[in-house]
Fold:
Amino acid sequence: MLRRARAVSVGLCAVALAALNVLPAHAHARSGPAWEIRDTGSTARFRGLSAVSRGTAWAAGSAGTVLRTLDGGRSWQDVSPPGAGDLLFRDIEAFDARRAVVLAIGEGEASRIFRTEDGGATWTETFRNTDPRAFYDCVTFFDPGHGLAVSDPVDGKYRILSTRDGGRSWTVLPAQGMPAALDGEASFAASGQCLVSAGSHDVWLATGGGATARVLHSGDRGLTWSAAGTPVPAGDPAKGVFALAFRAGDPRHGIAVGGDYRADQASPDAAAVSRDGGASWTTSRQPPQTYRSGVSWLPPYPHGRSAAVAVGPTGSDLSTDGGLTWRTFDTGSFDTVDCAPDGGCWAAGELGRIARLEFSR
Structure:
């Protein structure tokens, strides 16, 4: 089934990591950037990730699992919402160590949103989808008050959910300002990065499955949208743009990654860049070698304004020129990546894998 395939987005299996703790994610000698695994004690697959700082991060995944660390990953608290074991959490947005919003995906009532204000000690369900045609994929916030969530197309258009009170309540926005979806088009609930925002009003939506992989942009918090085609491979339910990243202080610069998530299929030209806020896209001169599901800009200090990291089931790549060229620095499996303003960059994936990025000196 098309939606089920998008939600699963199957990657390569990694070896069990339960015994690892603060170890490099690869076996060869470390140079430059390297992921250092933080033992979570979990076997969940974490596709939702929110980096608050080098010390604090939240992760959300399968079997209704939510974890939080306050000490740089040395220890993890299971702060999962009670009774959520049947839900698939695919996105989480944390405002600090105590406040977070988590999205569960799926058809009909499987799509839900929960909010905590006490570090996960208690959760409130603030949205439950009652339309069997809707399937929510991602959530993003402009600030601690204003945010959006996106559903695959309903009646031929993407459905946008809006909050003005930090996720305590949600309203479906009018569809008049949304362009028509392409035949077979939807978004991928693979990394929590199919809907991303930068600044106070700009938001972008990544698509796949249609004849063209597109990026939709809104400059008014989701009321009106424009669509731009990308050169990322499309034309198949398994192909498209899986993740986006735009600079918070310079939203004209964006990166798109994706490809074909099937492990036995090649993914050429699976990264693209924009220099005009998503109005147009060009293929990276040297894209990652295979499918990538997550991407994030590195903080300007100390990495400069043109550094970014991309992750996927077959490895991680670094770009130092704004996404034009990429080089693989790790071959471990991750699904998503997120960087905090203080330089804390985290990645998460299958079998409880969570790591923090470190740079050799």
